Amino acid sequence: MKQIAVTGGKGGTGKSTVATALAVLLGKEHKVLLVDADVDCPNDHLLLGIKRKKVKTVWQRIPRWDMEKCTKCGLCSTVCKVNAVFAPKGRKPIFMQQQCNGCGACVLSCPTKAISWSGKEIGYIYKGRGHGIDFISGELKVNEAVSEFVVDALKEEVKKTGKSYDFVLVDTAAGTHCDVIEALKGVSLALAVTEPTPLGEHDLELILQLLEKLGIGFEIVLNRFEEGKAKMIEASVVKHGRKIAVRIPYSKQIMEAYSRGVPVKDNSIEEIRRLVE
Ligand code: SF4
Ligand code: SF4
């Protein structure tokens, strides 16, 4: 099994377009699982017209206070590094649930064992099938903040069945935060998708630095390529001793496929297939 990430420092560069088109193309000859790990805004199922079915609820542990046991010492507030507890000495602690990341420092530090564990629903795992490929995605509930827990639960599901596939394609969120790092765990190759804009260049630099730090091999895919307009990206990748592996043209046909919600077909996707096979 080859686990490959489709990633990119910037949102809107076409990661999902590449991931879905590549998954469908690979699925013609291989057993493929497409993983939508952009849990804040999953959209691969929309691009592929796949109806998803909820298979699991994701829970996050959160602390619960027993005020009968609380001596109002204020320690739980002192140890919480994300300011989820407000407890000046002599006053009852106030818990701001949305900010809690479930680290457990307050539970461990309370001298009177007034804090125990509870849980809250923060997201869901969905599965589906279409275009000859299997599909799994995670989705963070609206107003929840800790997306990496949903990505972690998603990757745990992938671990259970991933070995039975020839290819597992992980479509990550944009950026270089914890949820992206979680999604990149276990992948052997990453496709860094970018676009020929100053923002594309800036954010490509960030994702390449992250991939290098994590020791993950990568190839660079330039989307919306137009002759003469990619000089800054070409110069930027040279700094990493690399060149652009595949250029996806800026074309009306690709835009139409994207807007109609059908997998993109283009020679450049064939080139990416050859790159990963
Ligand atoms: S650490 Fe325990 S006893 Fe102290 S304020 Fe927090 S809950 Fe109360
Ligand atoms: S579990 Fe961690 S983040 Fe949550 S309130 Fe306690 S110390 Fe703060």
Description:
This protein has about 280 residues and is an alpha/beta fold. It folds into two domains: about 1-35 and about 160-275, 3-Layer(aba) Sandwich (Rossmann fold), CATH 3.40.50; about 65-115, Alpha-Beta Plaits, CATH 3.30.70. About 35% of the residues lie in helices and about 30% in strands. The chain has helices spanning about 15-25, 45-50, 75-80, 105-110, 145-160, 180-185, 200-215, 230-240, 250-260, 265-275; strands spanning about 1-5, 30-35, 55-65, 85, 95, 115-130, 135-140, 165-170, 190-195, 215-225, 245-250. The protein has a nine-stranded mixed sheet, with helices on both faces. It has a two-stranded antiparallel ribbon with strand order 4-5. It is elongated, with a radius of gyration of 22 Å. The structure holds iron/sulfur cluster (2 copies). One iron/sulfur cluster (SF4) binds near residues 73, 75 and 87.
